[in-house]
Structures are given as C-alpha cells and as structure tokens.
Amino acid sequence: MAESTRLVDLVHERIAGFVTDRASILTSVSEELDPLVDISRRFLSGGKRYRALFCYWGWQAASGEPDGFDPFADDEDSRPSTAVVGAASALEVFHAAALVHDDIIDNSDTRRGSPSAHRLFQSLHRSSGWAGDGADFGRSTAILHGDLLLGWSDELLDDALDELADRAAARRARGEFNRMRTEVTAGQYLDILEERAWPTRDESEFRERAENVIVYKSAKYSVLAPLVIGAAMAGGTDAQLSALRSFGLPLGIAFQLRDDLLGVFGDEQVTGKPSGDDLREGKRTMLIALAREQLPTGARRLLDELLGDPDLDDEQIRLLQSTIRESGAVDEVEALIARNVVRAITALTDAPLTRTARRELTALAETVTRRAA
C-alpha cells in the first residue's frame, strides 16, 4: 500500500513538472494561452490514478525484484522505476484527454464535480464578452485541449521509454500503447454507434454488442493495457504478459460494469456527475441490454422512448431507475461483476509474477470494482 501511495505522489509530481515545462512554451507564444495552461493543470491534478497503479504493478509483477527492494531509491538501479513513473504519467494524461473528448461527445456539463472542459471554455467566452456563440467556442477549444493532452501523453511516454536500456522492451511497450490508443478510439466509435443504430439491430445482439463496447472502450484501456505496458517495460516474458492479460480483461469488464451502475444510480455528491446521467445520454450499456431482456413489452417501449432524452426530469429519472431495478438487471450486473472479479483473481493463482504484485493486484481488484465513484 505504501508503494502505491508513493507511486501516486510521484505521478502527481511528474505531471505537474511536465505541465510547468510545457506551459513555458505556450506562454512564449502568447499570454492569451494562459487559460489553456490553467485548465490543463486543473484536469491533470485529480483522479484516482488507477491506470498509473496498474502500469506500476504490471512492471513490478514482471520485474522479478526481491522482496524489500526499494523501487524508488535514488540510485542507478532506480532508472527502470523512473521510467515506469513516466509511463504511468503518460497513461494518466491520455486518460484526461479521453475524458475531455468524451464529455464533448456526451455533452456533459460536469466532470469530477466541476465543470467539464468545454463548459469552462464556454464560461471564459461569456465572462470575456467575446463575439459569437459561447457553446461553439467551448466545444472547439476543448477539442484542441484534448488534442494537446494527447500529444503530451506521447511526449511523456517517449521520455520514459528513452530511459530504458532494453530497447526491445521499449519497442514492445510502445507497441502496446499504440494498440491501446487505436482500440479505445474504436470502442468510443462503437459506443456512439450503439446509441444511434440500436433500432436497426436484432434484439438478440444487444448483450453481445454492449460487451464489445465494454471491452474496447474501457476494459482494455483502463486495466489490461496499463498492466501490459508496465510489464513490457520490465522485459516481461510472454507467459507473464499472458497472465496479466488473463487478469486484466475480466477485471476491466468488471470495472466498467461498476461504472455502468454508477452512471445510472450513483450519488452525485460522490461521483461528481448528476445521478442518471447515462440515461439522459442514452448509453446502451450492458445494464440496459439486460433490463430490456426482462421487461414486458410496454415497459421496454417506455424505456426506449425515454432513454437518451437530455431533458429528462428528476421524476422521469426515478421512474427509469425503478424500472431497471425491478427488471432484475441490477442484480444480474452485480453477479457479472462478482464472476469477473473471481476470474481475474483466479488468473493470478500460480501466475509467473512476483508475490508482492499478485497480492497488490488482488487488493486493487477489490478496490476498483467496489468503488462508489
């Protein structure tokens, strides 16, 4: 636990230092770019750093370091650790970029209890008295902001990989990062597609299509890819990377299923987003697929009619929440989460990974799937 806390602190420091360095480039162009720097700092300063932790424990799982080894010691032997802190930081900046773009796509007003990036830029437009439409300005500048963060994540990763003496390991880690970046974009597209194309789909496909979105939009990029990137940097064997994939995929699915429940039933004071936000956005999640399978025709038709209406009031949200809960879908999703956590933890049994990492990954599996935000 102490190592995880220290890792999170180091990631905070690495990101803060990087933003300060890049801020000097932006402000040398124009002082009018100060808001871009300020909003970047704001978006990169928070979060639970799960992706950073999975990257670090993937590295530790394959590093083969003995118990008692201090991965943060300030000597030459710490260079791989310095590198993995950089890679973990790159993953967190990539995540922030994805959230900025995701909030634009979903037209979300909030993120972590504060205004989303495009709303912050919209407020800047309004308070400055500029010409044109504030919402258009907010969306346009947030797209650029997300693109900037994507570029920064690449820079952080390149700096980290340059520190590795094992160039084959560096190339393998870069390949895993590139694959993750492509897959999460594909998953995001599929998510958007399902919100629009579902009336043309066969009813029997809804569950399978929802799971496909889970795997590529979230499971791989939230858990599996960070684990494998860290292990690849440590020079992990094929067997070690395979074991981490067997752990990471079911855990990533469970992680997103918990998100699906929080997106419909979460407490706004805890999640930082309005309760029922996924209902207003029309997310065709596994939760919705399972509810539709169990609901009678009339209730299913009502669900389809209301889902995706951005103007749903609190009473309509409560009606949909009650309908979904009474269908039994919530209990079924909880059962799916539990089964996937068991699959993940079982994959660690006798896996060719360090004992400390197996213990910490088991604890992390419980943490990320039982969270309230």
UniProtKB/TrEMBL annotation:
GO terms for molecular function: metal ion binding; prenyltransferase activity. GO terms for biological process: isoprenoid biosynthetic process. It comes from Orlajensenia flava. Belongs to the FPP/GGPP synthase family. The lineage of its organism: Bacteria, Bacillati, Actinomycetota, Actinomycetes, Micrococcales. Pfam families: polyprenyl_synt. SUPFAM superfamilies: Terpenoid synthases. This is Polyprenyl synthetase family protein. Transmembrane segments: none annotated.
